[in-house]
């Protein structure tokens, strides 16, 4: 079958847009490639590239140093006994849920869990019990809520949950719950804990052993300056044989990973960025300071930060009454803010959002953050005077 030439003209190289924009999109700030990763993207972008070096098990490749990266550097970095590279945090979560639970078992999720945690549980045929947050405005999560959820699930099913999950931090408000206390509570009931660290591993120090976590799911394209989709799955020794069990027909292939995981550009950009990723986690205190400073300044303009106070993460959610009021009468309606920010070369606030939005200050820097604050103020003044 031949395709219409006019249709084909729509494809080919597609330019993304301004490359020098100030990016405050929480999905992207931690995933922006380093210069070494950009070089690796070109070098290893061919579909077959890494497979040239594979003898049948991807993470055993010695040159390039995939084995050393996966089995030595990454376990030390996140504090688990074993690590595998996956296609993303959601795939990591599903692998744990599917291997640890059986159809009809229960998984306990925090009330701020990402939708992919629900979908992973549903795909694994697990029942879901939620730990509710305190609600507006801080959405705090009480670790003791896990005890109540575990007891409720046990009472209903006659056996304890197969797993509990904590989103660390959550992807809406950037709240960091007391993961160590949650782990302690879960372990009192012999329930293992999975931390969803899509917005933490690669940005801030995370040590699963110190936190008491049995599993960690991480995202390379959200937080480890990697070309996605790519993620990590960290597992403590007690559960490694369960999660990484081998196929009976293809004895060197791990079932939950479908025999092979992220390969090529994703993996090699993660390796290329890793030295800088490790280094930047050492400066996490500076990122938190910048986030708190930014929040304080924009609240002087009438925006309201929702979530934990003082805030402990770069991801923040703001209610934005000044922008919402302007959107009621502005010529562009609720898209006025997106247009105004685009004129000022600021990317990351989704089009149409004026009543509230979330953003990230990660790696943006104080000068650029000052420019964003000044831009917010200019926009409010411009429409207030009209």
UniProtKB/TrEMBL annotation:
Catalytic activity: O-phospho-L-seryl-tRNA(Cys) + hydrogen sulfide + H(+) = L-cysteinyl-tRNA(Cys) + phosphate
Enzyme Commission (EC) number: 2.5.1.73
Pfam families in UniProt: SepSecS
Sequence positions bearing N6-(pyridoxal phosphate)lysine: 222
Family that this chain belongs to: Belongs to the SepCysS family.
NCBIfam families: PRK09331.1, SepCysS
Protein name: O-phospho-L-seryl-tRNA:Cys-tRNA synthase
